Amino acid sequence: MNLTNKRVLLTGGSGFLGTHLIKTLIQKGCRKLFTPASTEYDLRERSHIADMLLFYKPDVIIHAAATVGGIGANMDSPGTFFYENAVMGIELLELARQFKIEKFVQIGTTCSYPKFTSVPFKEEDLWSGYPEETNAPYGVAKKMLLVQAQAYRKQYGFNTIYLIPTNLYGPGDNFDLEKSHVIPALIRKMIENPTGEIVIWGTGTPTRDFLYVTDAAEGIVKATEAYDSEEPVNMGSGNEISIQNLVQHLIELTNFSGKIIWDRSKPDGQPRRCLDTSRAKAFGWEATTPFATGLLRTIQWYQEKSR
Q1: In 139-162, which positions are buried (b, 16+ CB within 10 angstroms) versus exposed (e)?
Q2: 75: domain CATH number?
Q3: How many C-beta neighbours within 10 Å does residue 280 have?
Q4: What pTM did the predictor assign?
Q5: Active-site residue identified among 41, 138, 152, 169
Q6: 3-state DSSP assignment of residue 7
Q7: What is the 8-class DSSP label of residue 135?
Q8: 138 is catalytic
Q9: Mean of per-residue pLDDT scores for the chain
């Protein structure tokens, strides 16, 4: 699919991933890109979605809008995380089918994988168990959209693809300490309190596969252009790093000289996380940004923003 003359509607365009998707789509030559705001169209309301599709008449929809947050936010608002992510996707996908949209791209989450998944995670492992408890409502809601996408492809021939990016980081991330994920939260704490104490949840032993947001955006656009299958696709760096090692990297890059306190009374989240990206490589995508480079760019962006 050549996106140059396609009418592409991107939900979540003002979010972290969305802003990078906009840049990538424009760089790829997409001339008819629409990024309606949630203040204009509430994706939890079917009538708003119908009005949006009538107005923009898209050929392609990339659904990146989501209600997201770290472990604390997921634990505080599990009902909100389940309902809003499920209802937005379900209603948008159904209306897109009715409006005969040419292609629908659903962004999933690694939180859908079972708590104890063999590393590296393969897409066929999605159904081998229940997700980690702290973010299970969010993960299950997103996984429901995979079922819907596959069902619609089978029954209606509706061209829907489902992509699973791993933990994203990079410039423009959410640095709100109440809602942020681990990398932006630690960067902010280390920069704002360079000689003080920082409390980090858990033991530091869990591992994660961190994907630089620009790489993720390029992968999503590449899949929109080149991928057409009911099978979900992992998008990760293919590298596994422990939270302890992440902290050490950030200490060195931010020149933090304070004290790290591990609050072992708090949950660790999923024990390990690293994705097998073979399926994405098959259509020509893989992550290219070295982790240290991505971290440094993220730190520099936050420092410039905070001046």
Answers
A1: bbbbbbbbebbbebbeeeebbbbb
A2: 3.40.50.720
A3: 24
A4: 0.95
A5: 138
A6: strand
A7: G
A8: yes
A9: 96
